[in-house]
Amino acid sequence: MKNLTQTVITLMIFLILLVSIFTGGCLEQSSRLNEKDGTEMIEEVDSDRNTSTGYLKTEAVNLSGFEAENSSLAENYRLDALDIELKSPQYELPLQESDITNYGKFSHKFLTDETALEKLKENGFVVISNPYDSKEDDITAMYNSLENEGQLIFITSDTLLHLYHVQFDDSMSQLEQNKLYDLLWELDKSLLNASVEDYNRASGEEKEAARRNAAYFSVALSLLQPKEEQIKEITDPYGPEAGVYFDPSAKEKYQFEIPEFVKKDVEAELALIEAHQGFELSPIFKYKEDYSQYVPRGHYTHSEILQNYFRAFMWHGRMSMLLKEKLIKSEDPAKDARIQTIQAGLISSQLKDDPDLFKKWDRIYKITAFYVGISDDLGHYEYMEAIESVFGNGSRNFNATTVEKLKVKLAGYRSPEIYGGTGSGAHELILTAEQADQLLEDTKGFRFIGQRFIPDSYLFSRLTGPYTKEYTGNQEHVPFTYTASEYGNNRGFPRGLDAMALMGSERAVYWLGELNDSSYKNYSLRYGELDSEFSNFSAADWNRNLYWSWLYSLQPLLKDYGSGYPTFMQTDAWKDKELSTSLASWTELRHDTILYSKQLYGMDVSLPVFGDKPVGYVEPVPEFYNRLLALTRMTEDGLEELDVLDEDTEGRFESLEIMLERLIEISEKELENEELTEEDKVYISKFGEMILMSASVDEEARKTTLVADVYTEPNDGLVLEEGTGYVDMAIVAYKVPDGRIFLAVGPVMSYYEFKQPIEARLNDEKWREMLEANPPKRSEWGLTYRA
């Protein structure tokens, strides 16, 4: 069976290449927008401007240390220019049944609801519940059903975004399970042994720092270490349990002993992690930590290995060795801050002095940074530079005098930009932007492999909370956004709309106003500042890593489609549908990177002949396909450069690249009102089969029902959840060059945004239970196009 499948895939790839030979076009350079004749020259090669200021730009151009070494990976982003004359044939709205060539046969199957029919007439399209299966969570399934019934197929941007998510998520989870887990174990075990050696030789505060480091790495190893119930012998290497459990040999391989002199602290810390009830005082670090963050979420629930990796990496990403004492709750906070600085100094020295250790740390950091970006907090590079400044090439004696010099040097480095909940007792007292900035300064310190700076969390931090906290509108009309805080004012949660607005969606701006979700004091001022930063980014700024580049790929979907685009795409309702699609894809991005992202507090090869018979329509968004193609190439090339690209993953990325190249060609023809060739029609009709080559991962990985928490509000005890649900069906009316109008259908993603108690952060499994039993309400703006 496996050999047969490989043969079919080989034949299909040959067919695609053969089709490409017959229909391959060329991509021309272009430069302008000509509104008079409706011709749009879409320029996809941006100049490298350097006009913005602030942390976002600094993160892109600061090429010291790790950034300089890693900058070549971002250079794998190569975007071709598109030259398209927009002449898509138009029709009048509202549509009449008599206007639609295939209305009679089509309506009996998909348009039995009067509301759906009215929305179709009004906008030229409508989104309905999936008539094949209202609880379908595989976006590829609908294409096969449509092909089997001979229905006209609408190939959607949602499908391609979900296919990229599947490859992104699968490649990351394979790396974590097969490579990074072992690297992290070896690194932590070596550093535990080094910390014990430091403890045995040192005295005074340096001895206590070494003791706490031994506790720190013992917690990490305890979280990584397989438990008895996580070990199982698997006899079928292709069965459903393959890769889920630890192999029996793991019991001997992953062994270590918690040093007796830290056992009490380690056990206390592990108990809090296991309970994951929220904010508690850390026994080792003496400040409050949000232990609810240690519940495995995202793809990390798929195997026992990934669950352990998640908890250990969350520990390394969140726990900070603070420079200042403000957040520390102990008898002598100043002393504890000194000790934590010594802890960081010892760890950084150990990495500096042992090339093998540094190589392992750098390997983990470099791979994860390619996916998500660099740490928002200080780390090894900054601390080692400061240590060399204080000690030079001499011995490193961390006494009161040298530690004070070290702290002064480190105080000159940047503060984090995103408040990640460290020591959250002080958060309750933050009332002004100045106090919020001070809190970020108070959280400055060393994180071993810190959580990453991501632009959406950054903008959330600037649009909500103390920066814009005071609400000036009518609270009665905003039940979603506002909750009363204990000191009498109203504190707003961010929304996914905020992120989309700052990525260029005027429709998101409209809905923020319509829903009173921009009625904060100083919201307009902060929004203007952020808009200035975001709008000045060059293509290089947007494509510094895969996380940012994914966001960049969404931007063409958020623009206004003017004259020359299909009629249904020029409606406000279509803008709302694309807004929902973009938010669903952003949710998948947050889901896939939930561990690393710093949160603000996925055959028949015969050639039929169609003649003038239509087979369907490709959503004509070539700019989007082009950016997603560049992102896919960047992903494949970057992983190859990092020497972590396996043969199966490479094949799936290459299949997705071929698919996107083909969709660019077909959508260009549609926009230029050209007749599709027989090969084009074959491709559309067989699209369901093509997908199987790009999404050949297990059933769990293909599911659209995903969830990610993106924001924590400790005062209210709530988190903001973003979810994607079951697959919906889009029905669109499109016009072919000979003047006929047809209806075609295709799958689209669904999107949810809601609040959840902090102690009940959702993973995918819990989210699916909620969807089944009591789903939250869908987005307000979806009412314009959903029936």
Structure summarized in a few sentences:
Helices cover 49% and strands 9% of the residues. The protein has 29 helices and 16 strands.
Please tag this protein with its features:
9% strand, 3 domains, dTDP-D-glucose 4,6-dehydratase, disordered N terminus, DUF3160, single chain, 787 residues, three-stranded antiparallel beta sheet
Could you walk me through the main structural features you see in this protein, from its secondary elements to its overall organization?
With 787 residues, this protein is mainly alpha-helical. The protein folds into three domains: 80-151 and 545-783, no CATH class; 167-372 and 376-448, no CATH class; 453-541, no CATH class. Strand 14 and strand 15 (741-748) form a beta hairpin. The protein starts with a helix and ends in a 14-residue tail after the last helix.
Number of domains: 3
Q: How many distinct helices? A: 29
Number of strands: 16
Which regions have little confidence, pLDDT < 50, spanning 5+ residues?
A: 1-66, 469-491, 602-607
Mean pLDDT, all residues: 85
Strand content: 5-15%
Which structural class matches the secondary elements?
mainly alpha
Provide the fold topology.
Blueprint: H1 2-23, E1 33-34, E2 39-40, H2 55-61, H3 66-74, H4 103-110, H5 114-123, E3 125-129, H6 141-149, E4 153-155, H7 157-201, H8 204-224, H9 250-253, H10 263-275, E5 279-281, E6 288-290, H11 304-318, E7 321-322, H12 333-353, H13 355-372, H14 380-391, H15 400-411, H16 433-442, E8 445-446, H17 455-463, E9 482-484, E10 490-492, H18 496-502, H19 506-514, H20 523-535, H21 539-542, H22 546-554, H23 572-592, E11 616-618, H24 622-641, H25 647-671, H26 678-685, H27 687-694, H28 699-702, E12 706-713, E13 718-724, E14 728-735, E15 741-748, E16 751-757, H29 764-773
Parallel strand pairs: 4-11
Antiparallel strand pairs: 1-2, 3-14, 5-6, 7-8, 9-10, 12-13, 13-16, 14-15
Helix pairs in contact: 1-25, 7-8, 7-11, 7-13, 7-23, 7-24, 7-25, 8-10, 8-11, 8-12, 12-13, 12-14, 14-15, 18-19, 22-23, 22-24, 24-25, 25-27
Pfam families: DUF3160
Protein name: dTDP-D-glucose 4,6-dehydratase
Organism: Methanosarcina barkeri MS
